[in-house]
Amino acid sequence: MTPTTPQPAGTAPATALPALVLRHAARTPDALAVVDGDTALTYGRLARESRALAAHLRANHAYRVAPGDRVALLTSRSARTVVAQLALWLAGAVCVPLDPAQPRPRTEAMSADAEVSLTVGDAKLLDAAALTGPVLALPEEPLTGGGHLAAADEADTACAADEPDTANEADAAYARDEAYAMDAAYAREPVDASDPDRAAFIMFTSGSTGRPKGVAVPHRAVAELVTAPDYVTVTSRDRVLFHSPMTFDASTFEVWAALANGAAVVVCTEQRPSLEDLARHVERHGVTVAFFTTALFHQLAARRSRIFAQLRSVVVGGEAMAAAPARAVLTAFPWLELVNGYGPTEATTFATAHRVTARDGDAPVPIGRPIAGATAHVLDAGGRPVPDGERGELWIGGSRLAHGYTGLPDLTAERFVDHPAAGRLYRTGDLVSVRPDGALDYHGRNDDQVKVRGFRIEPGEVEHALRARPDVADAAVTVDRPGTPEARLVAFVVPAPGPVTPAAALRERLTAVLPAHLVPDAISTVERLPLTPSGKVDRRALTDRAPTAGDDRADPPPAAMTPLEQAVAEVWSRALGSEVARADADFLALGGHSLLALAVTDDLREELGVELALADFFAAPTVAAQAALVEHALLAAHSDLHPETPEHSDVH
Length: 652
Prior knowledge:
The protein is α/β, with parallel strands linked by helices. It has 22 helices and 26 strands.
C-alpha cells in the first residue's frame, strides 16, 4: 500500500487528554508521573492537584474560567506547566501556550488573535509581561486540601471504568468540597472535559502576512498521536524528556506521549540548556525517550554525545535528516531506536515517521509513511495523484487534522480543502515523492517557507517587520546554507532615503517585535532587490549574495589578543567556520545563533574546563567579554590560589 492510499484509522479510541491521565491515576496512583528537579508528582497527586486547580479556576470570583474559554498560559517550563494544562482542560478551557521569552507585542498579537479571555501563569512572569488583558496568577502552593481526596479517587475510578458521565458527576462532587470555599451553585455545575473534538491547544506558527497564525488542535488528534504509538516505543517504564518550549508543538509529544502511556515526564529545569545540561539531566533522571530537533540532533551526533548512551528511543524532526550523522550515531549506539518524524502543526506534530537503519545509505533519510490515523497523498496542483517516483505536493488527511486557523476563515479554506475522493485534506506545501518501498522522500517547499534550526519560518513575517521600520524601504529574507547545521536566516535591506542604519542596530530593534528565531542572523544592505523575469524577488540570487562577517563595516586592524582571548577565538572559529581574529568580534554579528552557542559552550567546557550558562554567553557576546568570563570562572574554581592576595594576608 503506497502512502497515496488512505491508511486505516488508528486503533486509539477518540478521547480527551484528561481521561488518559485520570485513567492511569486510578490504576497506578503511586506511579511516577512528573519529575521537576527534586520534586516528583505521582499520577494520583497530578490528578488531585490539577482537579483542585481546575475547580479554583472555575470558582474564582474575579475571572471564572468557563467551558469553551480560551485561556493563555504563561509559565516557565516546570511540573506546574503540566498541572496547569491539565487543569485548564478539566475546566473545559482551551490552552493557548505563551513563551516568556517572546517580545510583548507578539504575545499581545497572539492573545488577540486567539481571542483569549484570560491569561494565567507565574506571578513574576505576568508582572514582567504587563499584558493589557485580564490576568490571574496561579497559586504559589499546590491546591491539595484534605477532604477532597475521596471524591478525587471516586472520579478516577469512574474514568478508569470508561464511565464519562459518572466521572463528570464525581468531578462536580470534588469541586463542591468545602475545603476550597467555593460558590456552591457554580461548583455543582459538572465539568465537561470529555469532548474529544474540543480544541486542546491553539499553537502559533509563523505567518506570511506579518502576524503569527494560531492552529486549533483538538484533543482527539493529540490523543491518537500519543496513545500506544507504533512508530516509537513508549511504555509505562519509560521516562520522557520535556525540554522543548511549550509553544513548540514537539512539547505535546514530550509531555502527553508519556502521560498517555503511564510513563514519567522528566522536566528539564534549565530554560536554555547547554548540551552538557541535557546530558546531565538525562543521566540524572534515567531518561529513556527524547525528541530532538534535527539541527540539535546533528550537533549531538557530531560530538558523539554520551546522551545517546542513556537513551533507548530518539525521535528527530523539524528539517531533513542527514544520513551521515544518523549512521554515526547508530554505529556508536547500535541499540538506539532512531525515528525520523515529519509533520506540520496543522497535522498534530507528526504525520509520518521512518525508523532509521544502516540501510538508509548516503541519501537524505526518508520521512516514512503515515502514522496514527494520518493519511498521505502525493498530488499535483489540481489535486490529482502523481505517479510513484515523481514529485508532487504532500496533502495530509485522516483523523488528526487541526480545526483550522483561529480567526482566519479564508486561509483555513485555502489550506484545509475538501477533496472529492480523499475527504478533508491539509495542503502542506512540501514536495515529496514515493519510493518503490512506499516510503516518502522529502524534496523541499513549493513556496517561500523555510526551516532554520527546526523552526518554521515564513520570510514574509520577518520582511513585514523590517518594512514597518521608517529607515527601510524594502526587504527580503532568505536562508544561507539551507539544510545544513550552519543554516542562517539572512535579510537583505534596501534603505530608505537618509542615513543608513547599521545592521547591528536593525537586528537589535527587531528583537523588540520578533522572537529570537525570527531575527535574521545577518543583515546586508543592497541598492535594490533582484527580480525574476516575472517580477518576483529572486531569492536564489539573494542566497548567492549572502553576506559574510563584516560586510557592513570597514574594520580597523585587529589588536593583539591575550592568550585566553585567543583560546576563545579559536573555539568560535571552529563553530562559525571562519577565522575570528578580533577581541571585539561579536558572536551574533558573525552569524552565531543559539545552536552554535551550544557547541561553543560545550567546547569551552572540554578545552578550558569552565561552565558557561547560555544566559551568560549571550550577555557577553564578544571574544573579550567571554574571555573575561572564562578567567573569572577559572579563578573561582581555584579560589585557594588567590593570585591577587598578598602572602601574609588574613584572607583564607
